[in-house]
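ping. complex inputs:
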Amino acid sequence: MTFSIPPDRQYSKSHEWVLVDSNNALIGITDFAQDELGDIVFIELPPLGEILIKDQIFGLVESIKAVSDLYAPLSGTILDINSTLEAEPEQVNDDPYDSGWILKIELKDLSEIKTLLTADEYGDQTN
Amino acid sequence: MSNLPHHDQAKWISQSVYEPLLSEKNMTEVSLEHVPLPSNLKRNSLTLPSLSEPEIARHYTRLSQMTYGVDSGPYLLGSCTMKYNPKFTEDVAVLPGCSIHPDREPHTIQGTLEILHTLQEHLATIGGMDAVTLQPPAGASGEFTGILIIRAFHESRGDFSRNEIIIPESAHGTNPASATLGGYNTVEIPSNGEGRVNIDALQAALSENTAALMLTNPNTLGLFESEIELIASMVHDMGGLLYYDGANLNALLGRSRPRDMGFDIMHYNVHKTFATPHGGGGPGAGPVGVISKLETFLPAPIVIKTTSGFDLFTPENSIGKVHGFYGNWLCLIKALAYILRLGDSGLLDASAKAVLNANYLGSKIQYEIPFRPFYHEFVASSGEQDAAEVAKRLLDYGVHPPTTKWPLIVSQALLVEPTESENKTTLDQIAASFNKISNEDQSTLKSAPNSTTVGKIDQATAARSPILSWHSLDPSL
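pong. complex structure:
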């Protein structure tokens, strides 16, 4: 099975994607991750304003198969949360790279960006 | 297939057939006129179902036909040992003398205490242990009791630094849960290529922080831990204890004793190894056996034999009580009834047939079984097919599914335990069902089950929009 890995963004080893836009970044989980998890039923996230620290757990995703931790791909402050997911967590299954985005952060340390994987590198990891 | 037995589930719900709830049948207004309660405690009206005995009997018989149990057909749920339970044990449990209130002076319940003492002795013999408590009300409760005893033992020697319990990756999920609940950190060790404890990984995990190793033998792949004596000496040399999870003891009954393998403490799932219909959350009983140096820490009370009869006894350094009174008494009496009816030769026969049945079934099914030789259960892989869908499809063939997708060591795992109670004809039917499914296409699997009372359940919607109270149920739906 091949999974979608858009080349316009970057990835973490723990299967989150990051779309950087100047000082901000949009974060979600990859197509591979949503497929592994199966039907997602609940997503737990911290409140707005909370500070994420790179590689640390910031939330969890519950599917009918498993509960899995979410790891911060970068450090930063939460600016926005996709509130649609509260009622419709299936958006992450249906459209992980667009309407299934999870949160938006203001980056703390731009130098962290270079630690992320490119689409090609992430593709190699999931193969 | 046509000559093989069928165990299809009765199908009563369709668009035209619906079994109403009792509260939807013949409701009658009850007169409250002569109720001798103060008027401020009385309600204005009360309706209750008004049904005859045959209506009640038919209602519950109908409900029982809508589900699947071990009385309907084979029940392959691996590691759970869902074997047929002989009905005579129920007859014993409902004898008038077995319904005595436990809060009585020991000299007035000598018969009850003799039964408990006899079971303690038999369990001690079966496990090779020196003393047994019957209190824990389930296997996991037995594990937790064991963990508390392990802690009490180390602390009684002034050893407060041990904070780790080692658990193999194939362990039952209750093992790390019990260890964590008991205040320990768990250290998971991987299996070796043969599905058994990896000796190098164990060596690396052992330290002066090791309180104990928890082990199931045969393990959840059905494999005997052939290096158990080496494992035991490694743990003991480091000052740790060895805990035996008795969930799979039915494979070894009368043939091998955990004590002889080096175990210091163990629990017995009497509802699996002996008798009591279980599943659906109980009831069960998880007695714990220990070697003599741990006897002083057992929960209170245990039953002892004195010169004048039987008495209750609190061990000197007891960890306290882990359940009310003497444990789940009715499960215990059924276990004793089973042990006494089968006797030595019957128990030997039970373990032999449990292993023979699993191996016969394993030899007949086409799915790959990566790890061998196995004992009373085996783990097959459904390969490219989704194990959960294979499980649902088995229901269409009148077979209760095995445990699926666990242990994680095998991908698309089907953990199959036919138990000793099935005969060759039924095992042939089970094998034929597996083999037919192994050749079915994905769309057939995805739509299953089709012949059951309730079809494929939408788990995602159930989890996303759960109905958590009967208030949310609309009877008109």
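The mean pLDDT of chain B is 92.
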